[in-house]
Amino acid sequence: MSDRVDPVQSASDDGVDLYDVSTWEERTSLDGLAVAIYRLIVGTARVGVVLLAFLILLAIGGLAALTDPQIGVLTLLSAIPALGLAAYVWYSDVTTSEPLSLLVATFLLGVLTANFAAVLNSVAQPTFQALGFLGSVAFFFVVVGPVEESVKLLAVRLHAYRRDEFDAVVDGAVYGAMAGLGFATIENSLFITRNIGMTGEIDLGLGLIGMGGGITAIRALAGPGHVIYSAIAGYYLGLAKFNRAHAGPIVIKGLIIASLIHATYNSTVGIGSGIIAAVTGLPGLAAFFAYVILFDGIFGLFLIRKIKRYRDAYRRAHTADTSHEETLQSERTEFE
Q1: Is residue 336 included in any domain, yes or no?
Q2: Are residues 48 and 82 in the same domain?
């Protein structure tokens, strides 16, 4: 929100010193100490969040992709579709290119913050499962969608959002996509690890499609969805950064959109795949592929359209600036 002006300040001349009356700036040693303590608290909180997420990652066996070559290779392969989509979002950024260091940092934070969702989902799931099918749907809309999209946005907010390189609305979509890629990667790794643990081998057939009436899907195809959802939420985070007076509602709007899309996918993937299989006669795995491509295609186009609108507006604005400068230059030359 933009700074409001106190009545004393608004009625006083610019030359009047109102320090510690109605204005404030760092002047004294005590002021400096207050600033230092505040920065320490904020920095410690951010480090604490990251450390806690890392400890959870260790506790749930999230490093198996690094310690087990088999899991690592499968995790890498499963992340390729999501990586391709994230790269496309990055390439579509018409403004200055985002530094690789920030992209990697956001990816890693997406890996870490995903663990908060893993814990919260695990705690809440039994309560909803006891209510049957409707409880499972409610679980997706009340818990899974909002929680997972929030932690992915947290991955952007912890670091990239605070940096000067985050200097355009569309940057939010780029960093959101990277957070989604990190989330999808660790989720795939955990799913693959559990699958190996239960079967003793990798089941590449229909056993990966899902359990409990389509609650889970093949993790490789879930990845692009995570990128799409968090890129949409990230776009609104970028919009909020440059509209501080309405930042809160803008962020909430982005989270609502991303969460609804996410929860709708989780709720319909099993039913949708079954309908496609029944109508077309496709085997279960092929029907699942068809549904995911259709669903992600629809909302991928929604994301692409938002990025395109920004790109078109950016180019129009810069074309207008260039034309204005050329006109001024022409006028100066004419009257010299």
Answers
A1: no
A2: no
